[in-house]
Amino acid sequence: RPEHANQNQAMPRTKKAAFHRGRQPKPKSDDQPQQRTEEEGGEKRQQQVGEKWKSYKFEDLPKERVRAFSAFYKPLVPEAEWDCFLRTMATPLPSTFRITESGSQTERTRAEIETRFANQPPVVIDGKEYSPVQPLPWFPNRLAWATTISRPMLRKCPQLRAFHEWLSNATAAGQVSRQESVSMIPPMLLDVRPGQRVLDMCAAPGSKTAQLIEKVLPNNDFAGSNGCVIGNDSDLRRCHTLVHQVQRLRCPNVVITNHMAQCFPSVYVTIDGKKEQLYYDRILCDVPCSGDGTLRKAPDAWWTWSPLPSVGLHPIQCQIAQRGARLLAPGGRMVYSTCTLSPFEDEAVVATILR
């Protein structure tokens, strides 16, 4: 009734009203674990820094979710490797970063790491020994480095203060990119060559896009290059994060777009007076997924894990991959990747595309 409507309009916003508007009310500090949002390497994440995660162990996981996870994935993993696989999923993710490929600066950055940090003795934290930074053996030219110390520990450990400060400053200056080691693999498999046209269909937050830019335009050689990288994402806010990530490279041959990947528009160019559709030499489809491959980074996801989201995501993943295949130039290469282990989102999608 009208009088009720007026009363509702005058009512202050409650937690329920805030939730209906799409924004979850902020938790009170006295009844919720402390959380802090930070931005490193262009990626915004929520890290749980309360006492609960300091003592995070495999035994802390919800047993019913672990049983469901095991029932779903155990048939897919060799029996001799299962126990190791499950416990690895419950260990903190190491800290990794990649040196930006930009000519002489790359050499100086690598030399500084090798001189100042690579030969340091192991660090002992809470009675446990952690190794210093070491190069990833599978990444070429010693340009990717890792330490067994997790990000939260790296921020808080007094013995590592100098390294953490250097890493933060080098990231802000564009000398290195904070990037998980598994995130470096899809751009490597794409085998991008200088001067090629590259499309990253689901690009945000942008660490892979930056890696692609460095390959298309090595040593910041922009003059006379026909190469370009288009970074697309369907989420406008994530596009802003993407811009922040790639602008550190100061590359003019980059375009950021905001489209649904499965409906990415065809682009037409005029060559010698003739209008032709633009096809891409390399396409990366790092599609939205259920993300259970990130349990080491976000252990709170164990409490909500279920195989059902994979079934719902399969159709849109197929649509994105199919659209990418249609935009690929003859003789080009497309890489499909996810952050999940589910065969519904991985092998089943690839099988659909091949059919």
How would you concisely characterize the structure shown here?
The chain has 355 residues and is an alpha/beta fold. The protein has helices spanning 2-10, 15-20, 51-54, 63-73, 82-89, 104-116, 151-156, 161-172, 185-190, 207-216, 236-247, 308-326, 347-354; strands spanning 35-40, 43-48, 95-99, 123-125, 128-130, 134-135, 144-147, 176-178, 197-200, 228-232, 254-257, 268-271, 274-277, 280-286, 328-337.
Structure description:
The chain has 355 residues and is an alpha/beta fold. The chain has 13 helices and 15 strands. It has helices at residues 2-10, 15-20, 51-54, 63-73, 82-89, 104-116, 151-156, 161-172, 185-190, 207-216, 236-247, 308-326, 347-354; strands spanning 35-40, 43-48, 95-99, 123-125, 128-130, 134-135, 144-147, 176-178, 197-200, 228-232, 254-257, 268-271, 274-277, 280-286, 328-337. The strands form five sheets. It has a five-stranded parallel β-sheet, with helices on both faces. Helix 12 (308-326) packs parallel to helix 13 (347-354). It is flat, with a radius of gyration of 23 Å.
Give me some keywords for this one:
355 residues, alpha/beta, five-stranded parallel beta sheet, four-stranded antiparallel beta sheet, 15 strands, 35% helix, 20% strand, disordered N terminus
Structural class: alpha/beta
Outline type: flat
Helix content: 25-40%
Distance linking N and C termini: 58 Å
Topology, number of strands: 15
Are there runs of 5+ residues with pLDDT below 50, and where?
1-55
SSE topology string: HHEEHHHEHEEEEHHEHEHEHEEEEHEH
Average residue-wise pLDDT: 82
Estimate the strand proportion: 15-25%
Taking the sheet with the most strands, its summary is: 5 strands, parallel
The Rg value, from CA coordinates, equals: 23 Å
Strand order of the largest sheet: 11-10-9-14-15
Helical region count? 13
